[in-house]
Prior knowledge:
single chain; alpha/beta; 2-enoyl-CoA Hydratase, Chain A, domain 1; Lyase 2-enoyl-coa Hydratase, Chain  A, domain 2; seven-stranded mixed sheet; four-stranded mixed sheet; globular; Enoyl-CoA_hyd/isom_CS
Amino acid sequence: MNGADGGTDGGAGGTATEERFGEWVAVRREPEGYVAELVLDRPKAMNAVSTEMARCLGEACAALAADRRVRAVVLSSSHERAFCVGADLKERNSFTDADLARQRPYARAAYTGVLELPMPTVAAVHGFALGGGFELALSCDLIVADPTAVVGLPEVSVGVIPGGGGTQLLPRRVGAARAAELIFTARRVEAVEARELGLVDHLAAEGEDRAEALALARRIAANSPVGLRAAKRALRTGWGMDLRAGLEVEDAAWRSVAFSGDRAEGVAAFNEKRAPRWPGE
Length: 281
């Protein structure tokens, strides 16, 4: 990780900036600000999510959600061998029931924060992405993994259930029966099978998950910021609705962009055979 005065791997050129949220979460913005990277940065614990890390992750997501410049977000890890191993069970080993109850709002804010980011999100996964770690990836719109990735929701093996959205997000990816099998057996799934099952969307070369996720985010960010947010809103709001209700959601989202500055610029750019200059309005 580079500091705010020296990141050099963000985008086509220039200097990336970094903002820290506590000790273990960082947000890096590429030079033009259209792509941001939300970095899990607690390498000594393989990014296990403690109470403090959850609090900081929620704050980082709130900052990103409010930043109208950002058109796409990559969720990545600074650890070479893991994306995130889930909840910090070493911390929880000393918890009383009251401690666990007090932690819950911070955990929910962290996972909901990622899930409800209004712009498209891409997770870059390598190594272990287990329990809450995999739920963070599932909270993103797309998941890029490399061949070292091992994913799963093993919570029932330690006496709990997925509590970061897993019981709701996994069935939406792979269907109810397959999700039930994976959750009930607590099975870990390696990268190639994960791609075959639809648990991840793209397989990158080893060590290239972050680079591929950033490249995908840049392709997304070339498009209208107004259109991207409206499309995501329509997709997410329509989950679980019948077709008629979903089409009403789509129509409302279409109306929210049809008379925007971005729509006018997009049509003009197409007819003038030039790249659009999105006003983001």
